[in-house]
Sequence to fold (681 residues):
Amino acid sequence: MPRDKRFDILFEPVRIGPVTAPNRFYQVPHCTGMGYQLPATLAAMRGIKAEGGWGVVNTEYCSIHPSSDDVPHSFASLWDEGDVRNMAVMADAVHAHGALAGTELWHGGMRASNHLSREVPLGPSSLPASESPWQCARMDLDDIRRFRQWHRAAALRARQAGMDIVYVYAAHSYLLGQFLDREMNPRSDEYGGTLMGRARLLREVLAETRDAIGDVCGVALRIEVDNEDGAGFEERSELLASLAPMVDLFDVTIADYSQEMGGSRFVKEGSLKPRIAHVKQVTGKPVVSVGRFTSPETMLGQVTRGIVDFIGAARPSIADPFLPAKIAEGREDDIRECIGCNICYAHNGFSAAIRCTQNPAMGEEWRRGWHPERIALAKSREEVLVIGAGPAGLEAGLMLARRGHEVKIADAGAAPGGRLQWETKLPGLAEWARVRDWRLHQLSKLANVELFRESPMTAEDVLGLGVPHVVAATGSRWRKDGRGRSFRSGVASFEDPRTLSPEEVIAGAEVKGPAVVFDDDHYYVGAAIAEHLARRGLAVAYVTGAGKVAEWSAYTAEQARTHARLLELGVAVHVNTLVAGLTAGAARLRCVFSGREDEIAAECFIPVTSREGQDSLYQALKGRGLTSLSLIGDARAPGLIAHAVYAGHKLARGFGEDEVAVNRERALAPSSRHPGDFITP
Ligand code: ADP
Ligand code: SF4
Fold:
């Protein structure tokens, strides 16, 4: 299909100082859990983004010197020649598709604990380093001079690695941001005082970066439009204007990271717009900003209204590396829209290569050779029955059909989607339906797949169909017996008419207050059920053995807002507490530390402890003469939606294939037999 002419403006080249981006699609720096440790994995992933049409592709935050490392989080580095060599692989992969490569030079200051380098962290004043019980050193003038030299040297290495854009990074409370901040920088010397004084170091670094590489590379500045406390908007505007002559591109954001990186539960598309709309006018320079943009119409509006020059994206480029190409080809309805779950972000916290709920190929481009848009045709066309149309079954069915197989998908439910059918009714989770809807839409384009609703399958039904290959993607159900991480064999008294599962609550079971939700899962379901009930006006108590509401969602940058939401709604929050049993009209609470027990009223009880995989159909089909039989997704091991989609995808990729080797990157020790393999500075 030809491109809609209205979108032509998104495909205009735009100058960034001495370099020119081929279009306005700009992958901002984003963490990947790969960093300097996985250069080949990283280069392949970034190269795919360029192939998919992103005109600029950046690295993640890139440490300039061992005086700042972010272990246990993954980060890029430009400390030495070995780093230059690895980063050049990424630059080459990006350049191969005509895009510009950029890197974000980073010094964490007091936000880096330096677990790896064991160097003393540095900062404008001596405050606790990150969340560690040790402090950074207050930088004296010699330290400041040395920092400037390190930054300049790293900028030169970035150019050597083939970077087209080099960032000066003064946002997200890292070192240059710390100097800008009034509270973190109480200095009385020339690097403190008013905002203009506190910005002195930033000005020096910008000037030195420009001097070092500004003839060849665009100099970008990532900076917030407000202070750490969310105030200081006017003052910051003046600062941005004063810095403009030294900057080729402003990458602007706000101080509230929980909004910038907000999950879709709390933050919708384009949320930064009202805060950053002035920057272009104030600076007269090209501007990029993010906003989890997935709608081409919204992107168009951002550019035509003069808010930004580039559509900045991290998550939309992760969920769909081919988003620009799809707009270019008039295939907007094929865009695999980000759902805002932040599972991608979570894995940087684990130092594990990035993954994505919507895009199961993310992070697997080099490791497994998966391409997000291409899948090999099967050697022979087979008939496959997929039972279950949840995330696992839909992905498996779609990818098997794309490989050319004859696919039937059967689901017991009136509508496909599996767990998404009820989970997307939880407060704020409506966007997650995109996992289902994108797959249903793609399936509707294929002639070799049929979807059967209201088709509960027994083993005899399956065998009666005579389909040789069967995939059971039959999902899971929340347990009501209390089994989970706190009570491995359950709690006998939970067997009670007052006990409901989360699915039953959303399906409309009668819930009487006071309701007690016991969250032994620590992710979103428990807190979302509590919110759902509180919004219906019920008295709700939320009980968790963890120290915070929805503790695991700290990894997805949702914990603080989830916790605040329950408090705002008047939910009684009991942390570090278990529901140890039910008694007449009450729930027995137990402190996880002291064992002390207490009772609260409970007319209804919803345990969110663990799930039971629904594998009975699979077990009944075993040994019944099928050519192949597989069990995938939550039915095999209840997990994240991302796990289910990945399981469906992996099944389809491997279907009928020999075992494929998985590439692995790791450091190689210096050896007299392989003298060239280990690179020292
Ligand atoms: P996953 O996350 O692994 O995809 P879900 O729980 O989301 O799992 O989806 C499982 C789907 O399987 C549900 O829609 C459910 O209706 C369907 N299902 C379970 N058992 C059967 C069965 N015997 N016949 C047909 N559909 C089934
Ligand atoms: Fe979007 Fe979730 Fe994928 Fe991240 S993991 S890009 S938030 S869909």
Remarks:
- Residues 361 and 372 are 5 Å apart (CA to CA).
- The first strand starts at residue 14 and ends at 16.
